[in-house]
Amino acid sequence: MPHRGRRLAGELIGWWVLLFLLNLVFISTLSPLELIVGAAASTVAAVGAWAIHRAVRPDVGPAGHWTAAVWAWPGTLLTETVRLARLTLAGLRGRPAQGRFTTVRLRAGVGTAWACSLLSGTPGSCVMAVDAHPGAAPVLIVHSLFDSRSRLESVLAEADEA
């Protein structure tokens, strides 16, 4: 089998194993029917994941500020979860939350892919778009539920951003 074929097979098998194991975590019984359906769904999802990975070819980017961002993420996750619970309670009392769109210019040395993953991995923000031009710092369009910046956003963004 050529090198390219082995790589494709390895990636598809890797995705399938990961997705099938994830399916096993979420099913309540290990019946043969559940396993067959899970295996079939994992096959379809693995092909889709491979196709997306092939189309996108994400670049992780530089690792500058990575440790500070990973260190800030759990605190941001906890803080925003509490704030989201408060917003939910306020919404149940008739006070709707609006959220806002903001731009975040990444600091030099911050990788776009991992920065977007960390920001979108919190309850208070979701990266909606990336505006990247050669030679310029990437600008993220972020939807945020809260008016103030999170600690994570402060670590990733240039200091002059508001």
Structure description:
The chain is mainly α. It has 2 domains: 3-56, no CATH class; 66-156, no CATH class. The chain contains 5 helices and 3 strands. It has helices at 3-26, 32-56, 66-92, 112-120, 151-156; strands at residues 100-105, 125-131, 139-144. Strands 1-3-2 form a 3-stranded antiparallel sheet, with helices on one face. A hairpin with a 7-residue loop joins strand 2 and strand 3. Helix 1 (3-26) crosses helix 2. The relative contact order is 0.13. The mean pLDDT is 85.
Q: How are the secondary structure elements laid out?
A:
Elements: H1 3-26, H2 32-56, H3 66-92, E1 100-105, H4 112-120, E2 125-131, E3 139-144, H5 151-156
Antiparallel strand pairs: 1-3, 2-3
Low-confidence sequence ranges: none
Mean pLDDT, as a whole number? 85
Number of strands: 3
Helix-strand pattern = HHHEHEEH
C-alpha geometry: globular
Largest sheet: 3 strands, antiparallel
| Helix/sheet category | mainly alpha
Strand content: 5-15%
Number of domains: 2
How many H/I helical runs? 5
Q: Give me the side-by-side strand order of the main sheet.
A: 1-3-2
Helix content: 55-70%
Distance between the termini: 55 Å
Over the alpha carbons, how many angstroms does the gyration radius reach? Answer: 20 Å
